[in-house]
Amino acid sequence: MTKIIKAAVIGAGTTGLDIAVHLANVDANQRLYGAIDAVRNPGSIVSSNTSSIPLAALIKGLPERFAGEFLVTHFFNRPRIMRLLELVSGPNTKPEVITTIRDFADRELGKTIVVCNDTPKLIGNRIGTYWMLVAQNEAIAMGPDVEAADTIIGEPFGMPSTGILGLIDLFGVDLMLTTLRSLQNAPANTDAIHEYDPESLLISRMIAENRLDQKSGAVFFRFSADRQTPEIADLTTGDYRPMRQIAPESHDASKGGARALMEHPGLGGRIVMEKVLAYAASLVPEVADSPDAVDDAMRIGCGWEYGPFELVDRLGGSRLVEHPKAHGLAVPPYLTLAAEGGDFHTDFDGKRRCLLPDGTVSSVVRGEGVMTIADLKLATKPVVDYGCAALWDLDDGVVCLEFCTKMNTFSEPLLDAINAALEEVGKGFRALVIGSDSPIYSAGADLRVFLERIEKGGADALGEFIDKGHQTFKAVKYVPFPVVGAPAGLAFGGGCEMLLHCDAIQAHAELSIGLVETRIGVVPGWGGCKEMLIRRCGLAGATMGLGASAIATFNLIAPAKVSRSAFEAKSLGFLRSTDGVTINRDRLLADAKQKALSLSDGYVAPEPPLLALSGPSGASAMRNILKSAALAGHATVHDKVVGEALINVLSGGPNADPLKPMTEDDVLALERQAFIALFETPATVERVKHMLATGKSLRN
């Protein structure tokens, strides 16, 4: 690994409008590489980020030693967030060079590596731009409203929630046009990309009027001059009008189901999806040797829920063959092969297998140290299926509890499932991991439960739900075996509080974690306040003076700070210095399992701590911070009410005596009291309802 860092992987990328320039100036790249080769250390690795210029053209005429240590590493933008790395090697690339880069990109950069053949635009950009081209041109030709086009072509098929034309707004019509032209001009490329004109009259007008992308302020979508009303472009005239809710007859009749949309005689997305899926099938083995490589590229790089071959299996291959054949259209032999013999993917003996273009079947092999719930589901059944959660055996005496609610939110049944799982683990397993494959660890408690309880049963009903959360999270903390949280994505509110009660955390690097309850007008109610007080002091199991800790905790919770990474989560105190960080998402569960095993030998549950809270002196300091925030315009009227309630919890209340330590239950009682009192205010209820309706915070 040190060798790579010292050598410096050098990228000569081609992005945006540079594509045409690079295509016309391959010799400029060759001169650059020649200059690099003259000064680089033997054994160093050089790579290009291009997806437009063939590797063979880049190294033509360069020494064989350079060709042996050169490859294409095409990162997707934004490189930190996008996990896909398309890797292309040449016939002379040394095997150890490929292995070194793959291992580095996997373990140190967290990438999912897809091996591609040396073809124009590789996989993601080639299929992705064709998909957008077909959808854009068919929508314009058919003349539906933009809302209708996005409804039928997007989400029902697992495409990005932006919708196809919303995605073009993000991508940029000028960049898309340049990319499409580079594909159409690629040598020896005679495929279906030539069937469409990439520059329709509407697209030409948008470019001429500088309606290029979201940064320019308008393409298919924009806001009105007063920034109050979302507007949308008419696909016939190009002029803007207010956006409205439109659902085509085909969408309503099919209830948004993808297969039913394909079979509906009306405007159902059939033409677009038939063409795109057939196009993908026509590119194997040209762009990659297996369908899984294509599926991975489109899921991870382009945001599809299912890869094109997975989508064919879901829609039914025979249906995708019958309709084009009936209309005299050519069907790729690979698609016909799958339609006649079954699906592209089958499961056998707990392993996923895929159909190859030559008719043979290949097993999908995972890398060492890769573990997912999806693979476990192929190979086995859960130890216990609770409906809203499932317990999976990870071997070696470790089990994993997977949450299965919407956004993994906590409901009463999920709390019951957690308690039942703890009891099950105690019957003979060594340790528990709490995690899943989901892009969201947990969005916290289900706000609808809080709202329904306060509206129907008042404070007593709400208190019962809070008490159940307290009991459950304390059980997680004090069971006689180690519990390791394995979060990825976001862990907000109750999701954060669950992790704070675990013995250890193994987090994915891209973790956004925080106690965000103040955004909805309450304070953390399931132990978040007392756990952060303990962490800020850093002395578990002992009597602690927490005056400074209370102020630090207030500065974290009151503004609802969240981390932008697992590393920042450590600096904020949500993760301990001993907690682990996994760079590659696919390795998270395996790393969490190893951490759980490392804690299991000789494990002893923690002793309940005593907390000496500051009382009036600490409250006064926190109150000054709140007043300053209000004067600066950072705290609204209700923020001040919530802030006062939080101060009362963190200081131990007006009667707290630092010489008389409080128990965890004492602090939990303060959290409970503050939570219920705030939920009984109209301003908090208004915030909760606004969040449920819009997904955004209300500043009242």
UniProtKB/TrEMBL annotation:
Residues 25-119 form the 3-hydroxyacyl-CoA dehydrogenase NAD binding domain. It comes from the Bacteria. Keywords: Fatty acid metabolism, Lipid degradation, Lipid metabolism, NAD, Oxidoreductase. Pfam families: 3HCDH, 3HCDH_N, ECH_1. InterPro entries: 3-OHacyl-CoA_DH_NAD-bd, 3HC_DH_C, 6-PGluconate_DH-like_C_sf, ClpP/crotonase-like_dom_sf, Enoyl-CoA_hydra/iso, NAD(P)-bd_dom_sf. Residues 124-221 form the 3-hydroxyacyl-CoA dehydrogenase C-terminal domain. One of its GO terms (biological process) is fatty acid beta-oxidation. PANTHER family: 3-HYDROXYACYL-COA DEHYDROGENASE FAMILY PROTEIN, 3-HYDROXYACYL-COA DEHYDROGENASE-RELATED. This is 3-hydroxyacyl-CoA dehydrogenase. The lineage of its organism: Bacteria, Pseudomonadati, Pseudomonadota, Alphaproteobacteria, Hyphomicrobiales.
